[in-house]
Write a structure and sequence with these properties.
- It is a single chain.
- This protein is an alpha/beta fold and 371 residues long.
- It has two domains: 144 residues, Galactose-binding domain-like (Jelly Rolls, Sandwich); 182 residues, Rossmann fold (3-Layer(aba) Sandwich), CATH 3.40.50.
- Helices cover 32% and strands 24% of the residues.
- It is built from nine helices and 15 strands.
- Strands 2, 3, 5, 6, 8 and 10 form a six-stranded antiparallel β-sheet that branches. A five-stranded parallel β-sheet has the order 12-11-13-14-15. It has a four-stranded antiparallel β-sheet with strand order 1-9-4-7, with no helix packed on it.
- Helix 5 crosses helix 9, helix 6 packs parallel to helix 7 and helix 7 runs parallel beside helix 8.
- The longest helix is centred in the first third of the chain and has 26 residues.
- The protein starts with 7 loop residues before the first helix and ends with a helix.
- InterPro entries: Ester_Hydrolysis_Enzymes, GxDLY, SGNH_hydro, SGNH_hydro_sf.
- Keywords: Hydrolase, Signal.
- GO terms for molecular function: hydrolase activity, acting on ester bonds.
Length: 371
């Protein structure tokens, strides 16, 4: 059909298009001038918890361990690493108000990674970065993304890695709506459960979404539970019991950078057996210590890494010899690449290091995840 001002269909079409454009501009103008209204995030699903029996909502360890676990372990369990809120909204902007537990600062990790928030949006089945909530201190407020078209979107909001979150509210336009997710992605049935060190907790990602467990949660579209405890992955057996309480698809044991040779010899078998007693068929993946970049120069570190990896290998062979099934060992060889550019300080990963580690883990986990 040709378009002409003499053609009544053309006139109708142009009028309809002008009306639609006008209404859209009007809606955008109204939305832009609408006030932000905050909604308590406790109304929406929280991913990444091994147990619901925590002292407060945004913690990782059960309250029953408060007077049982070592003090530093317990306190690290109050960090919100790996926790994420799922929601849906048609707002043209997403904001957040949050308060952190400690207002922690470190000289080798960004504030956005330590105590910030990271927002992702679901587009065609994939999670795309939408923006960061940049912290100002203990009490924070930030507009994470704005000037969007007013349509329904699914969101995933990752919480702070190295601080606790004591309160959280999500802000939207006053004329918009917010609700729980309409689709269960990431899938929450049979999550992947990780246990490990400061690296697992997310040190030193520039923002919370770049910790490798959070990367893998998006890539696998499967809930991941982060039980990383900076400097304190010492094979405390109560953590094995916490892990055993989860109906997981895979258990990942990544404790070697913290545990000594003696601790690996004495506790690794018992730690594994606690999990295996509750989950006789679930895959368990042991991970060697990465070949840290400064071990090329520091002979003491190089020897420690070699000794601990050889000890883990001996434990693994022992388990295989006694007939254990569905256990796997991930070599440290390719975890962070070979150019020496994947860490902040020779040990803790940059975003590049986390991305490389996630790429190594992804096919291993994808192959062994139980539906």
């Amino acid at each position: 059909m040709s378009f002409s001002l003499r053609n009544p269909y053309s006139i109708y079409y142009l009028t309809a298009m002008k009306t639609k454009s006008f209404l859209l501009c009007l809606l955008l103008a109204i939305s832009a001038n609408a006030q932000i209204v905050y909604h308590d995030a406790s109304a929406f699903p929280l991913l990444g918890k091994a147990t619901e029996t925590t002292l407060t909502r945004y913690e990782r360890l059960p309250d029953s361990l408060r007077n049982i676990s070592r003090k530093p372990l317990w306190e690290l369990g109050r960090n919100s690493a790996g926790l994420a809120v799922r929601f849906r909204s048609n707002s043209t902007r997403i904001a957040a108000k949050w308060e952190v537990l400690l207002n922690r600062n470190m000289n080798h990790m960004t504030p956005t990674g330590i105590k910030g928030l990271d927002l992702y949006c679901l587009q065609d089945g994939k999670w795309l970065f939408a923006g960061s909530g940049r912290p100002q201190g203990k009490v924070n407020e930030a507009t994470i993304v704005k000037d969007m078209l007013p349509k329904e979107r699914e969101y995933l909001l990752f919480l702070s890695l190295y601080d606790g979150v004591t309160s959280l509210s999500i802000g939207i336009d006053s004329l918009s709506q917010i609700s729980g997710p309409a689709t269960e992605l990431p899938v929450r049935k049979k999550p992947v459960v990780f246990y490990g060190t400061s690296i697992l907790q997310g040190g030193c990602a520039s923002r919370s979404g770049m910790a490798h467990t959070n990367i893998l949660e998006r890539w696998l579209n499967r809930e991941c539970i982060n039980l990383g405890f900076s400097g304190n992955a010492l094979l405390d057996l109560e953590i094995a019991h916490v892990m055993a309480g989860v109906d997981a698809s895979v258990f990942v044991l990544d404790f070697v950078p913290n545990a000594s040779v003696e601790q690996i010899k004495e506790r690794a078998g018992a730690f594994y057996s606690i999990i295996r007693s509750k989950h006789p068929d679930t895959p368990v993946l042991f991970v060697e210590e990465p070949i840290f970049t400064h071990s090329r120069f520091n002979r003491t570190v190089a020897r420690e890494v070699k000794d601990k990896n050889e000890t883990l290998q001996a434990v693994f062979r022992s388990l295989k010899k006694r007939g254990e099934k569905n256990i796997y060992l991930l070599s440290s060889e390719d975890i962070i690449g070979h150019d020496g550019e994947a860490t902040v300080d020779g040990v803790h990963f940059t975003d590049l290091g986390f991305m490389r580690y996630a790429k190594v883990l992804y096919p291993v986990l994808k192959k062994r995840m139980k539906d």
